[in-house]
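Retry 2 of 3 after timeout on previous attempt. Resubmitting structure tokens to design endpoint.
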């Protein structure tokens, strides 16, 4: 195991990787319930989507660990599931079978782009200062998700956002945040995982387990159910290739590509998971994994799979190799039968970990030359728009466009690669289609 995953070479150990895998899983496991709740609004059976979600998460994370050897989880993506449901099926009146076909074909496009190294060239086209900004922006984005999950920040019609009311649940989150921060500062092994468990136990007396009563602790009745494979191979491969659906396939390709690229680049820069050329480690294999995940999603009945930014929780817990993703992948499997048990870990329990990961992700921002305004302005735009638009894709695309325009206007066209110009064209096309 040590030789295959190169644990000692990466300064890690089996114990560290296991703890990191558990931490990443706990931060990501919400998708097992949330994805079905979103996609079932299309008419797809909730239990069928739940089974598909677990299958995609299990196989994709294992492939990322064993094949790409990166500590990054892959699962059906948030945002992509909303686009599938509200824009494609409910908005364009496309049947969910055809939409699944579009997911499958977008995965095939991903695969071809990855095999011919086109996506790797796209990664290399991202200016290095923008990479640092994307990492910082993702950190702010994860922090905002954590604060929102804890109801520390809430929507406000007058000021857009505001601080939530000082409830017992919010105080529990604050306590969990401080305890987790102290554990991390003192370099306690598994500090983030201990913090999640502490916050869960602290929340229990308040009866905050997604509405479950505080006692009894677990009622097994109704928690165990057989998996539902009714969505397997229900996609419509023929009608999903019509001209009317081509823009949908393009939208899936574009959104998933930049979400995954941003995640790989951001985590790699923050955790120094880079190769000898300073590029994200095993990027081609990682992108191939993402492509296979999306193709698999269409076959089994889910929206596209993508790399998860919450993987940063496990990386911050010490995960440096593919063993982290393998551990997390296996943890998905029991929830084919035990999905209701996920209610045991409330949102406020993982929220402190997400907030602290923001500290870890924002570190590369010091590498940006803020006195060089033609670098600083595009970087700031990318960094700010990721959390403010609640979209990694929007942040990185506007970062690209502003970089290009500002560099041309500053007489520095030599700092714009031909690949970036091609990406800009596709960005504009995607905006026009959208």
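Retry 2 succeeded. Sequence:
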């Amino acid at each position: 195991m040590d030789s295959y995953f190169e644990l000692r070479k990466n300064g890690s150990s089996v114990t560290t990787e296991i703890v990191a895998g558990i931490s990443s899983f706990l931060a990501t496991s919400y998708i097992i319930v949330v994805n079905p709740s979103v996609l079932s609004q299309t008419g797809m059976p909730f239990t069928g989507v739940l089974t598909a979600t677990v299958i995609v998460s299990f196989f994709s994370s294992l492939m990322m660990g064993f094949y790409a050897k990166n500590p990054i989880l892959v699962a059906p993506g948030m945002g992509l599931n909303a686009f599938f449901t509200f824009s494609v099926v409910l908005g364009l009146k496309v049947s969910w079978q055809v939409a699944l076909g579009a997911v499958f074909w977008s995965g095939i496009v991903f695969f071809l782009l990855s095999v011919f190294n086109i996506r790797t060239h796209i990664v290399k086209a991202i200016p290095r200062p923008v990479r640092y900004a994307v990492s910082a922006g993702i950190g702010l984005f994860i922090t905002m998700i954590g604060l929102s999950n804890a109801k520390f920040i809430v929507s406000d019609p007058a000021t857009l956002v505001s601080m939530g009311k000082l409830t017992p649940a919010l105080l529990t989150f604050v306590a969990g945040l401080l305890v987790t921060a102290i554990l991390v500062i003192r370099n306690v092994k598994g500090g983030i995982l201990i913090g999640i468990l502490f916050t869960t136990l602290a929340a229990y007396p308040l009866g905050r387990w997604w509405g479950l009563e505080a006692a009894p602790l677990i009622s097994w009745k109704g928690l165990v159910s057989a998996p539902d494979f009714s969505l397997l191979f229900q996609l419509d491969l023929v009608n999903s290739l019509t001209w009317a659906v081509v823009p949908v396939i393009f939208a899936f390709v574009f959104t998933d590509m930049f979400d995954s690229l941003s995640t790989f680049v951001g985590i790699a820069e923050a955790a120094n998971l880079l190769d000898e050329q300073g590029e994200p480690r095993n990027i081609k294999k990682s992108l191939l994994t993402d492509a296979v995940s999306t193709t698999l999603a269409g076959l089994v009945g889910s929206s596209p799979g993508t790399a998860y930014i919450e993987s940063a929780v496990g990386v911050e817990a010490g995960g440096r190799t593919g063993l982290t993703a393998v551990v997390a992948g296996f943890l998905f499997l029991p929830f084919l039968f035990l999905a209701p048990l996920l209610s045991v870990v409330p949102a406020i329990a993982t929220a402190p970990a997400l907030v602290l990961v923001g500290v870890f992700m924002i570190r590369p921002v010091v590498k940006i030359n803020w006195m060089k305004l033609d670098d600083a302005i595009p970087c700031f735009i990318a960094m700010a728009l990721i959390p403010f638009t609640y979209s990694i894709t929007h942040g990185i695309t506007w970062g690209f466009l502003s970089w290009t325009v500002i560099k041309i206007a500053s007489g520095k066209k030599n700092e714009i690669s031909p690949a970036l110009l091609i990406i800009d064209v596709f960005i504009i096309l995607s905006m026009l289609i959208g």
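Attempt log closed. The mean pLDDT is 86.
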